[in-house]
Amino acid sequence: MSPTTIRFLKVGMAYFVLGAFLGTLLALPVTREFLYREAPGAQWRLAHAHLNLTGFVIMIIFGIAYHILPRFAGKPLRSEAWAAAHFWIAALATAGMIIGFIVPAAAVLLWAGSVAQLAGILLGVANLWLTIR
Ligand code: HEM
Ligand code: HEM
């Protein structure tokens, strides 16, 4: 496995642990009330959903795709450099989005993180598309 695939898988699993932990806190009445009381305006459900979905599911899908699609296609990945850049964009954009969902005063992180997340998705899709075509 390439260093980029390993990074996608490890950071994806780390986001999964965080997402499952936050989900558990949101499921238990005591911790749920604490979170909503102590952080007015925090969108905890959206933070939980995106830790698990953009953080875990999508990172794992891309990590595996970067490894397996070139092998299915019998060709090298179009660009290892694009994939490496995509990892950093996805990892940081997800962190920005999560902080932006939780801290209303840091909404700029949600906006910047969202645009960056979209850019990372486009880069990843273009790379895989050009690999398998
Ligand atoms: C230990 C594991 C998990 C626990 C305890 C958990 C718990 C919860 C709870 C309590 C909510 C409601 C939150 C609220 O309304 O404030 C929720 C919502 C949600 N969870 Fe999880 N969750 C877990 C794992 C996951 C995973 C793995 C995914 C995705 C792959 C996921 C996706 C979602 C989504 C999308 C919502 C929002 C649903 C909606 O729009 O109503 N969760 N979860
Ligand atoms: C560029 C990437 C993404 C951005 C900027 C983004 C942003 C958002 C925002 C702002 C909302 C709240 C919408 C509202 O309250 O009206 C939302 C909801 C949601 N998103 Fe995303 N999202 C992204 C990617 C994804 C992906 C890849 C998935 C699934 C794999 C996903 C699953 C969901 C779900 C299930 C909800 C509803 C959660 C709820 O209401 O509890 N998102 N997203």
Structural class: mainly alpha
Q: So how many helices?
A: 5
Tell me the distance between the termini.
22 Å
What is the N-to-C succession of helices and strands?
HHHHH
Counting structural domains, the number is 1
Bound molecules: protoporphyrin IX containing FE
- How big a fraction of the residues is strand? under 5%
Helix content: over 70%
For the secondary structure, the number of strands is: 0
User: Which descriptor suits the 3D outline?
Assistant: elongated
> Sheet with the most strands?
none
- The low-confidence runs, each spanning 5 or more residues with pLDDT under 50, are none
> How many whole angstroms does the radius of gyration measure?
16 Å
Q: Could you characterize what this model shows?
A:
The chain has five helices and no strands. With 133 residues, the chain is mainly α. The protein has helices at 3-27, 29-38, 44-73, 80-102, 107-132. The model has no long low-confidence stretch (mean pLDDT 98). Helices cover 86% and strands 0% of the residues. It has one domain (3-132). The chain binds protoporphyrin IX containing FE (2 copies).
Keywords:
single chain, 133 residues, mainly alpha, 5 helices, 0% strand, binds protoporphyrin IX containing FE
Give a nutshell description of this structure.
The chain is mainly α and 133 residues long. The chain has helices spanning 3-27, 29-38, 44-73, 80-102, 107-132. The structure holds protoporphyrin IX containing FE (2 copies).
